[in-house]
Each structure stands twice: as structure tokens, then as C-alpha cells.
Amino acid sequence: MIATTIRNTDTTNNAGFPPAPPEAHQRAVGANLRGLAIRTEYARAREVLKVNPYDDDACISLDIALLEAGFLGHAEWCHSESRIPAMFADEPRLLRAWQQGQDAAALEFLAAP
């Protein structure tokens, strides 16, 4: 049996459009993971606090995750991104912090001369 390689020299996909560049796929995948690191840190800190409510490092990590959610909201408003990060959708405190970041950016824009 002879193995042959079929090479597709067609530069369009089945719909007739040129293929998307690789960075477009990375952006699409990354868009679904917005806030993943923040959510991970928040969840880790929350679980540690369930075991030991007096763990100072976990308290600080929880506060930092909330601050980072606010920073993300602010940065995303500046880049015209108003969709709620999927990673925050079921976590009210992260969602509230993200929304406060969006609100702060909007207020800064309105207050600018």
C-alpha cells in the first residue's frame, strides 16, 4: 500500500471565505477565558478561608482578586468590552467588582474635559 498525502491548495474554506488568521482563533478562545486567573485566585482564597477564617494571606488574596476584577472591568470598558466575563457570571462579588470597574471608567470618561 502506498501512502499519499493530499494537499489542499485551496485558500478558501467551504463557505468561500479565506481562512481566519491563527491570532483570530487565539482571541476567540481568550475571550471565553477572560478573568480565569482572577476567578481561580478568588476560589482558592475562598476555600482556604472556609478551612481557616483567620488566614491573613487568604484574606489578602481575596481582596486582591476583587481589586483585579475591578481593574479588568475598567480596562475592558476602555477597550469597548461590555460583555460580562463568563468566569464571573456565577460569582456575585466578582461580578459586582467588575461592574464597578466599568462604572468607574465611564465616570472618568464623562468627567474628562
Can you walk me through this structure?
The model has no long low-confidence stretch (mean pLDDT 82). Helix 3 packs across helix 4 (92-111). The N and C termini lie far apart (75 Å). The protein has one domain. It is 62% helix and 0% strand. It is built from four helices and no strands. With 113 residues, it is an all-alpha fold.
The separation of the N and C termini measures 75 Å
Q: Which strand-content bin applies to the residues?
A: under 5%
Q: Ranges with pLDDT <50 over ≥5 residues?
A: none
The general outline is elongated
Q: What is the string of helix and strand elements?
A: HHHH
Number of domains: 1
Annotation field: number of helices: 4
**Could you report the average pLDDT, rounded to the nearest whole number?**
82
Backbone CA Rg:
21 Å
Largest sheet data: none
Number of extended strands = 0
Question: What is the SS-derived class?
Answer: mainly alpha
Give the helix level as a range of percent.
Answer: 55-70%
Tag the structure with descriptive keywords.
about 110 residues; mainly alpha; about 60% helix; about 0% strand; elongated
Task: Write a brief caption for the model.
The protein is mainly alpha-helical. The chain has four helices and no strands.
